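My current task is to audit a protein record that another person submitted. I have pasted the whole thing underneath without changing anything:
***
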Amino acid sequence: MVRTLSIVVWLLLIILPVGSGVFFLMVTSFDPETGVSLATLTELLADYDSITSSFILAVAAPLAACYLALWMAPALLKHTRLQQLLSPLLSIPHVAFAVGLMLLMSPSGWLIRLVESVSGVFPAPPASWPLSEKSLVTVIVVLVLKELPFLLLMISAQLKQLPVNSWVTQAQSYGYSERQAWWRIVTPELLRRLTLPMAAVIIYSLSVVDIPLLVGSNTPGVLAQRVYEWSFQFSSSSQIKAITGAWVLLAMALILLLINVRHYALFRRFVLGKKVTHPVKPNTHKASRYAWILLGVLSLGVIVVLALQSLATHWFYPNLWPAELTLERWQSEWAYLAEPTVNSLWLALLSALVGTVAAIALLQRQRQKAAASFYWPVLVALFIPQVPLVLGWQRLVGWQAWWVLWSHAVYTLPYAYLVLHGAYTRFNEQWLTRAQSLGYSYRAAWWRIMLPMLKQPIAVAFAVAFSVSIAQYLPTQWLGKGLTPTLTTEAVSVASGGDWRIGSLYALLQMLLPLVVFIAVGLIRTKSYAEHS
């Protein structure tokens, strides 16, 4: 049964979406009217601003998030409760986080208002404030802060599999400081193991559309954003630009993935190749603890400011607090909020369930074959930019809500697999052997022993998959053809038009749905700890 189910998963959620998307993109590319044009390609390469912006975004955001996560990760060894902080951080979708961050840190945001109320130095919003409402820097900041919890979760999973404390102790016996041991002994191994998660982060940064639409510069936009906009224009020249731009994105993705494979080797060459010195250095452990506190406070601030904005009647600069809090906006907008909320909920529940069950089927098949390493083809959908892939799907299918569900499941599967892989492959087979010695069949032992013992990581995988589905924009927008609105598509539509007040309603609801699921996961963990204590 497991073999059959794993074959079905491979066909429907890995081979079909990737193969059909690339195939139909290739077929469309050779269309004499709307196919790839050498003249259009030359024009795109000549107008290199969008390509440059996309390349900077896809390099700067993942690298900053990666090394910030590595700098903060040692605290996970000393304070295991910090891992519980990652769940609520992961629950905030990118769009909701971007809207909240702008309400918090933009030139007219709450932090500037706070400074003005204390010092009086900003009677008007500062024009030279670094985090403007529309810029490439703003997009990079949003992506760094949102990818950071995901990478910390991936590092946390790897730390459970490595004898880090033993490595650090041995390194200290040779004269290394604890911090030097971390960067010279532990970090290279972590970088090697983070190759696949980092590939997913890089490709997401390259092909993200919703965040640039919200907070990115429009002159010019990043390449993925421009391809998305061209695809909605009906002229043949725009369609040619969209298809040609999609292939440029694929070429950029290939280059970035090749560089990512060499990341580990480059780190060893340029960092480990340097002579070890023992300078007097600041207390970096204390600084990293402050970074954890800042990350938690920032996420809490995003939630609070979204809630305040959704309840505010009038909130003019430089007032620190709204003039009045009321449910009037919720009441007047609920008729428009209801359908996107219901669509988001059923899509996320079903696609997260499908993705988690599919991941379990693949991992169980791996156990039967005694293969513990990552099956990288399971993650292949994350290694292809969404724009060209979903553009191929759009040519393949008509509108049906089930196709939207299928497209979400394509992305919930790899994330559920990533989260669940470590715990599943580390499970001690002796538990099943003992159960079989007591008369249970292997299937009964799996249901009665293994599944209950893995309920925590399975619940976390489901919660992450749920959050991934909630955040899907391109598959919903293109395959849904506007007939399956979700909180994400509506939040981007409203907030990108500059209406942050209404946008805060959609963003807050978009954030609350996965947050409830992560809270439920936390309760499962608490109950499990109580049962084992």
Summary: The two ends are 36 Å apart (CA to CA). The mean pLDDT is 86. The first helix runs from residue 2 to 29. The chain has 25 helices and no strands.
